[in-house]
Design goal:
mainly alpha, two-stranded antiparallel sheet, 39 helices, 2 strands, 72% helix, elongated
Length: 676
């Protein structure tokens, strides 16, 4: 046997071994074979290429890329294998960079396996402009009739929140298959259009499109979200008819749907009848108990789940932690934290984020920050959680510092970051810092987002710069001015005593066809109260009852009581309070007591004070106001008694404070005044 024949034989043996190791994903054996080829001198270009592909299949990114770069002109197959490896391991930008490198090299053309990998990466990174360019290449390459490519393109647009473009792709498809229809249902649902998603499913039924398990798994969450029990039962009948009930993923979706539609009996019956129950089954039912506000039942179900030998995952734990945060249940939250550590789940980003959120909502920001410090700080979600925690605890300066640190760390803020963080500037009402942030938002190109624009209007309003606030408000197209934006600008003018402008804006909003909500009415009534616009305020209150069928809420009555009280119509104010459909809050009685101070009405003042002493026994302000009324009418002994009560209870007046910024010095001073 000559040398050349020996090399060929050895090469075939190595390739055979490589195929065997790859099928078994045996990374160690692949590495050993690589070493053997080097030491034996049989490492040739073809074997290098094969080794690169095998490393990619085994998930060894570093070695796969190293060998890939050493191989002479690569084939589209090797490029695809590398892109598949990057995509599978979450390195989406690397996938796109490799695709660009392949295109620029001109050595091989992308095929119908390449484009789905690229579209997957584009969708994950939300790089829709890049995706549109690749879409153009698909058309130029003649792949419009390839369902595999077109379905991945459709999913890309849906993941990038471009449902209209996704719909156009669907409409242009030569022959949409069941995957195309499923992508449309899930895509519209993810993009906040559940009714349209259900409509697409109904069209599938009408057009007699052949369905599969994925179809029902896509549409059942839509039925649950819309609480469309009738449609859900129709899908359930379809499952029985097709025999898909054996699939656990279908049964899980049915349990979730029945529970979210409020049919707990059907959900529990289906759950109890399941022979096989996985972590998704248990978590679905746990989540429903949480949604219904029954944390104790959710925790009991989690305990039963563990007893049955099913290990809760990060989703289960995150749901329970979130519920603990909402109910301020610190004790159970800490127990779950300990359990997460024992199960080695504490470093999961979903669990980390839920822990940060839970401790912050339980008003233990120190513990929240300790969890945050242990995160990798490379992902946006934990940053969003800690920033939201700062805002929840009114720690505006800390939020601003953390945001700057986030930028230094190279973490890119998203819309959720800005929504969480922007209220920090409203807390301290620092105009200069607000203007700096405004400049950053303009440069980032995010002011077109109506929620962010609304937050900026709110910041400028609270900083007292109504001119800037109104300028941004006017810059937003009328069709994008939602109820939240109108409410913020109305509240801003009302808070600064511009009641007539606030009422004028309210009328402009109604004429624009935007229906006011409870918050809008609270803002405009508050504006009328502060500006003394009694008739306008009462007219708006009647308008709320007559035209909008909105029942007055707890926030509306203090505004009306204050409005009537300030104008001297104390008896009318008391009559409205007395006939309230629910128990008056301290805010309502406080508004009446404040009006009694202005008009020196002892009789109604005493009634209001008695309720306030019961509802707010530790609020010294109520005792002081009653003492003022007594002093004003010459009842000095009663006034002195009020001061004795304060001393006997051991109450102290909360210091008032004012904050001024001295630009020349670069600092701030706080002036406090304490009641003598």
């Amino acid at each position: 046997m000559n040398g050349q024949t020996l090399v060929l034989c050895k090469g075939k043996q190595y390739k055979s071994l490589l195929r065997h190791y790859t099928a078994a994903k045996a990374l160690t054996k692949t590495t050993q074979l690589h070493a053997l080829t080097i030491t034996s001198g049989f490492l040739c270009p073809h074997l290098l290429s094969d080794l690169s592909i095998k490393y990619a299949n085994c998930g060894d990114v570093e070695n796969a890329r190293k060998l890939f770069d050493e191989v002479p002109p690569s084939t589209v197959f090797s490029y695809n294998m590398m892109m598949k490896m990057y995509t599978k391991n979450g390195f989406y930008l690397e996938t796109l960079n490799l695709f660009v490198e392949m295109v620029n090299s001109g050595k091989c053309m992308a095929d119908n396996y390449t484009y789905p990998l690229v579209f997957k990466a584009v969708g994950e990174e939300k790089l829709v402009d890049f995706g549109r360019v690749v879409h153009g290449r698909v058309v130029m390459g003649g792949f419009e009739k390839d369902s595999f490519v077109m379905n991945s393109l459709l999913s890309m647009y849906m993941n990038c929140r471009k449902k209209e473009e996704g719909g156009k792709v669907f409409d242009s498809m030569w022959k949409p298959n069941v995957v195309s229809w499923n992508s449309m249902i899930s895509g519209y649902f993810k993009n906040g259009c559940p009714k349209e998603a259900l409509g697409i499913f109904n069209k599938m039924l009408d057009d007699e499109v052949e369905m599969d398990c994925a179809t029902v798994v896509s549409v059942l969450p839509v039925c649950g979200f819309l609480k469309e029990l009738k449609a859900g039962r129709r899908v359930s009948e379809l499952v029985k008819e097709k025999g898909w009930g054996k699939e656990i993923v279908v049964r899980n979706a049915l349990v979730d749907m029945f529970a979210k539609c409020g049919s707990m009996e059907e959900a529990r019956l289906l759950f109890d009848g399941m022979v096989e129950r996985d972590v998704v089954t248990w978590t679905s039912l746990i989540n429903v108990y949480i949604l219904n506000g029954d944390l104790r039942a959710a925790l009991r179900l989690c305990f039963l789940m563990v007893l049955e030998g099913v290990r809760p995952n990060s989703v289960t734990l995150a749901s329970l932690l979130s519920a603990c945060g909402e109910s301020k249940n610190l004790m159970d939250g800490r127990c779950l934290h300990g359990w997460a550590i024992r199960q080695k789940l504490e470093s999961d980003v979903m669990v980390e984020t839920s822990l940060i959120d839970m401790y912050a909502k339980c008003n233990h920001f120190d513990l929240s920050f300790q969890v945050f410090k242990r995160t990798s700080k490379k992902k946006t979600v934990p940053w969003n959680a800690i920033l939201a925690g700062c805002i929840h605890n009114r720690l505006g300066n800390e939020a601003i510092k953390l945001f700057k640190e986030m930028l230094v760390e190279g973490v890119k803020p998203d819309d959720a970051t800005l929504k969480s963080f922007l209220p920090a500037y409203a807390i301290h009402a620092d105009l200069q810092q607000a203007m700096n942030m405004h400049s950053y938002l303009i440069k980032s190109g995010v002011l077109s987002n109506s929620e962010i624009a609304t937050a900026v209007v709110d910041i400028y309003s609270k900083c007292g710069s109504l001119e800037y606030a109104h300028k941004i408000f006017n810059g937003i197209p009328n069709e994008k001015k939602d109820i939240y934006l109108w409410s913020v600008i109305i509240a801003g003018y009302g808070a600064h005593g511009h009641g007539k402008i606030a009422v004028s804006l309210f009328k402009e909003m109604v004429q624009a066809g935007v229906k006011p909500n409870e918050v809008t009415f609270t803002s405009v009534l508050h504006a009328c109260s502060h500006a003394g616009l009694v008739d306008e305020g009462l007219d708006l209150f009647k308008f709320m009852l007559r035209n909008n069928q909105i029942n007055p809420q707890a926030d509306h009555y203090p505004c009306i009581a204050d409005l009537l009280g300030r104008s001297g119509r104390l008896d009318e104010a008391y009559e409205i309070i007395r006939t309230m459909p629910f128990a008056p809050s301290y805010a309502v009685w406080g508004a009446l007591l404040g009006a009694c101070v202005i008009h020196e009405n002892v009789e109604l003042g005493e009634i209001a004070a008695r309720w306030l002493f019961e509802l707010e026994p530790e609020n010294t302000g109520n005792y002081v106001l009653m003492a003022k009324i007594y002093s004003a009418v010459g009842r000095w002994k009663d006034a002195e008694n009020m001061r004795h009560i304060i001393n006997e209870i051991g109450l102290q007046k909360t210091p008032a404070h004012s904050l001024i910024q001295c630009d020349e010095i670069g600092g701030s001073y706080i002036s406090t005044t304490i009641m003598a």
